[in-house]
Amino acid sequence: MTKTHSIGDSMAGRTPQKIDRERGRRLRQALGARGPQKMMAVAADLDISPAAVSKWMQGHAMSIDNARRLADLLGVSLDWLLSDAPKPTDVASSRLSGMEKELIEQLRNRPAHVLPLLARLVQEIPSSPQRS
């Protein structure tokens, strides 16, 4: 039986797991940015227990696979979630136009149930051949 190493394990279990409160803070920040998404919904989406999500939010260890799945679900980079590296998904750090950045910021402030409706609306608008 092989042991799955977790983020936060030290020497494969030789010492007690270190709690990374900063990682917990980043996770809470990413969850907060999603709006009304609750811990239970994240747990259900990842097919894990809500208790596991709660422990991660406190900074307890998580498997690398769960960290990757969580980062994908929350729309953040794995590097940022685990080590506070700059988030490449930040609007300010991308090559988007000013109007695109503004639209993204406006979308982030909308309730989650509205986003699929807005996405469908945008898909119905004919594309122009050139981007300006």
Strand order of the largest sheet: 1-2
Overall helicity:
40-55%
Give the total of domains: 2
The CATH homologous superfamily of the largest domain corresponds to lambda repressor-like DNA-binding domains
Unreliable parts: 1-5, 9-14
Overview features:
two-stranded antiparallel sheet, single chain, mainly alpha, 434 Repressor (Amino-terminal Domain), elongated, 7 helices, 132 residues
Your description of this structure?
- The chain has 2 domains: 6-83, lambda repressor-like DNA-binding domains (434 Repressor (Amino-terminal Domain)); 91-124, no CATH class.
- Helix content is 52%, strand content 3%.
- The chain has 7 helices and 2 strands; from the N terminus they run βαααβαααα.
- Strands 1-2 form a two-stranded antiparallel sheet.
- Helix 2 packs across helix 3.
Give the topology.
Elements: E1 6-7, H1 21-33, H2 39-46, H3 50-58, E2 62-63, H4 64-74, H5 78-83, H6 98-108, H7 115-124
Antiparallel strand pairs: 1-2
Helix pairs in contact: 1-3, 2-3
